[in-house]
């Protein structure tokens, strides 16, 4: 009976990890959902280390998503104001601009990237009084930086999901009843 419960927990946590991976694509906190799947680890006899790895990866993914866009903005000549505009504009753009693009995944990515570019340009213009000829390069830096940051977040999510599914295969192999 315990083996059946372990198999059910392993399957549930694997489905949770898969759901988390899907959520990342929609700019939702999927990395944290995958990390939450790691909460099943101690009950399955895996200890706390896999949960720690998943939580650390989720934290790194979130930090990269925000700060890579801001870093690209700075590299394009933006000030601290435009870096904050990139972060805030990306969040607002992902929420407000998504409905304007009919393709679900593409709409969220474009909404976030355009919002980041608009936020960077707007903050740079309002607070740093940057000349107009520099604003385009700052906006492009924010746009591509945001896309790159989201790509890194997805790559880390793939790592998390594969790592957790690998952990679950060990649980399944130990508990799978022999039919032969």
Description:
This protein is mainly α and 180 residues long. It contains six helices and no strands. The chain has one domain. The chain has helices spanning 2-25, 30-37, 49-75, 80-96, 104-128, 132-175. The protein is elongated, with a radius of gyration of 20 Å.
Mean pLDDT: 91
- What's the structural domain tally? 1
Largest sheet: none
Estimate what percentage of residues fall within beta strands.
under 5%
Taking the alpha carbons of the first and last residues, their distance comes to 19 Å
Q: Give, in order, the helices and strands.
A: HHHHHH
Indicate the overall shape: elongated
Subunit arrangement of the protein: single chain
Helix content: over 70%
What's the Cα radius of gyration? Answer: 20 Å
Number of strands: 0
User: What is the helix tally?
Assistant: 6
Structural class: mainly alpha
Low-confidence stretches: none
Secondary-structure topology with pairs:
Blueprint (H helix, E strand, L loop, with lengths): L1 H24 L4 H8 L11 H27 L4 H17 L7 H25 L3 H44 L5
Helix pairs in contact: 1-2, 1-6, 2-3, 2-6, 3-4, 3-6, 4-5, 4-6, 5-6
Keywords:
180 residues, mainly alpha, 6 helices, 0% strand
């Amino acid at each position: 009976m315990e083996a059946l419960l372990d198999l059910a927990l392993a399957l549930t946590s694997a489905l949770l990890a898969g759901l988390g991976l899907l959520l990342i694509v929609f700019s939702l906190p999927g990395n944290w959902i995958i990390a939450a799947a790691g909460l099943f680890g101690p009950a399955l006899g895996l200890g706390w280390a896999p949960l720690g790895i998943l939580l650390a990866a989720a934290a790194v993914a979130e930090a990269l998503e925000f700060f890579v866009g801001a870093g690209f903005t700075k590299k394009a000549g933006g000030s601290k104001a435009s870096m904050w505009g990139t972060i805030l504009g990306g969040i607002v753009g992902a929420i407000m601009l998504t409905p304007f693009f009919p393709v679900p995944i593409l709409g969220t990515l474009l909404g976030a990237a355009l919002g980041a570019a608009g936020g960077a340009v707007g903050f740079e213009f309002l607070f740093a009084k940057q000349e107009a000829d520099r604003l385009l390069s700052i906006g492009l830096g924010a746009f591509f930086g945001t896309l790159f940051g989201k790509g890194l977040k997805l790559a880390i999510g793939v790592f998390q999901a594969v790592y957790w599914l690998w952990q679950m295969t060990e649980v399944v192999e130990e508990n799978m009843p022999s039919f032969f």
